[in-house]
Specification:
Elements (H helix, E strand, L loop, with lengths): L1 H7 L2 H22 L10 H16 L8 H18 L6 H23 L4 H28 L4 H5 E2 L2 E2 L6 H7 L1 H13 L4 H20 L3 H20 L4 H26 L2 H11 L12 H13 L10 H5 L7 H33 L5 H17 L9 H33 L1
Antiparallel strand pairs: 1-2
Helix pairs in contact: 2-3, 2-6, 4-5, 4-16, 5-18, 6-9, 6-10, 8-11, 9-10, 9-11, 9-17, 10-12, 11-17, 14-16, 16-17, 16-18, 17-18
């Protein structure tokens, strides 16, 4: 009997390790698939059910710290469903709300995934995001300078898109991995070969981001890098580390200026850059521009508790989409959805800043993630971000780290109290 028990005993730990590896692999594959969105349904949608299954097999669980986020997402999508009722026979609107519900589900998935085995799973998400950004950047840069049909497939309006449909989404997608790589270089601690590899990957990603010619992405990338550097400098850095941060930040800025100079020396690139760098684009200004349309929509939205209906802003206002996620939240999801979205963003701001500024087990890991998410939250005032896969991923990661941090601190509290009494 004892021999039989000894033979069986190792199976438990082996199975546990296997389940942990399964979840990490599923997370890696899911995040990596996020850079290919020209295909519908995309690989991301195909992998997501398997990632959920892997998490369930490993023992998925919830935590009460996630309840506010889940309630806000539920009310946001409930508002969309209510607003959809008059337009149930309109397929684009139905699909829009279904996608919104799916995006909310991915946020909850990522948050729950980080409650256990946090370091390993976060490392898998981070690794996959960086590798898929490199892959996407290669497609974007090669496609931009290639001849047709490759150029036509991987660009739009002479702006790099890679495997995305819209350069204004492709650009912001590249920001989080860029700041991760830049942050690694700032903190150091790696060999010269690893640092050179990260610098090369960062240069490639920044080149692709530049070639999207997305003004919003440019501003968000600059703001994200600046915020990450400021947080690293202000929070827990030694004097030597602060000197390193200042020196490498100046070197990095010089390198970016050099890359920009090289890029604009190419006539085709310079022409698009000059056009896109202008702040007075015709489609932005005037009563019929995007800002005028947003202003004209506000009095109507104040009289429409159910909003205009999903994707019906351009029908009611006579323009394109609102290009403002906060206006769109009320237009497509009604008052209930709009207020729920504002609540979600407000609570996320609290959780994110708390993670980044308050001492905790995941503060260092959270700083670059929060820097990227915070700027893209701000970017929502000039573009519709409510269907950005990577935005929901980042929101889920921030909430997951916040809940995991609270769990760690709660488990450590009795030990600390016992130590103080002793």
């Amino acid at each position: 009997m004892t021999a039989a028990a000894d033979a069986i005993r190792p199976v438990g730990p082996a199975l546990k390790i296997s389940r942990a590896s399964l979840v990490a692999a599923a997370l890696w594959l899911l995040v990596f698939s996020g850079s290919i969105v020209k295909i519908e349904p995309s690989p991301y949608e195909a992998v997501f059910p398997f990632a959920c299954l892997a998490l369930l097999v490993a023992g998925a669980r919830m935590h009460r710290a996630l309840a506010p986020m889940i309630v806000a997402l539920a009310l946001f999508n409930l508002g969309g469903l209510i607003g959809l009722v008059p337009w149930l026979d309109w397929q684009p609107g139905v699909m829009f709300i279904l996608i919104s519900i799916y995006m909310g589900a991915t946020t909850i998935f990522f948050a729950c995934a980080l409650l256990d085995d946090t370091e390993r799973r976060l490392a898998a998400i981070r690794s996959a995001y960086i590798w898929t950004a490199v892959f996407a950047a290669i497609l974007g840069v090669v496609g931009y300078f290639a001849d047709d049909p490759l150029h036509e497939l991987l660009t739009r309006f002479d702006r790099a898109t890679g495997a995305f449909k819209d350069p204004n989404v492709f650009g912001p997608f590249l920001i989080a991995p860029a700041v991760w790589l830049a942050d690694d270089l700032l903190r150091g601690g790696e060999g010269a070969r690893a640092a050179m590899a990260r610098a090369a990957a960062l240069a490639l990603i920044m080149t692709a981001l530049f070639l999207t010619f997305s003004r919003g992405a440019w501003i968000a990338a600059a703001g994200t890098l600046a915020l990450c550097v400021a947080l690293r400098f202000a929070v827990g850095a030694s004097r030597a580390m602060r000197q390193r941060i200042v020196l490498l930040s100046l070197l990095g800025l010089a390198a970016l200026i050099g890359l920009l100079s090289i890029a604009v020396s190419i006539p085709a690139v310079r022409e698009v850059f000059v056009e896109r760098a202008s702040l007075d684009q015709a489609y932005d200004l005037g009563e019929l521009g995007r800002f005028g349309a947003q202003l004209r929509s506000i009095p109507l939205l104040l009289e429409s508790p159910l909003g205009f209906g999903p994707l019906r802003f351009h029908i009611v206002i006579g323009n394109e989409d609102p290009h403002n996620v906060y206006v769109n939240a009320f237009a497509s999801y009604g008052w209930l959805g709009g207020l729920a979205y504002l609540a979600l963003i407000g609570m996320t701001l609290f959780v994110g800043w708390r993670l980044a500024l308050r001492p905790g087990p995941f503060r260092s890991a959270a700083i670059p993630i929060w820097a990227a998410l915070f700027l893209q939250i701000l970017q929502g005032v000039q573009i519709d971000t409510d269907h950005w896969r990577h935005l929901y991923l980042l929101i889920g990661v921030v909430w997951g780290l916040g809940a995991a941090s609270a769990m760690r601190e709660r488990r450590a509290a009795p030990h600390l109290r016992a130590t103080e009494k002793a």
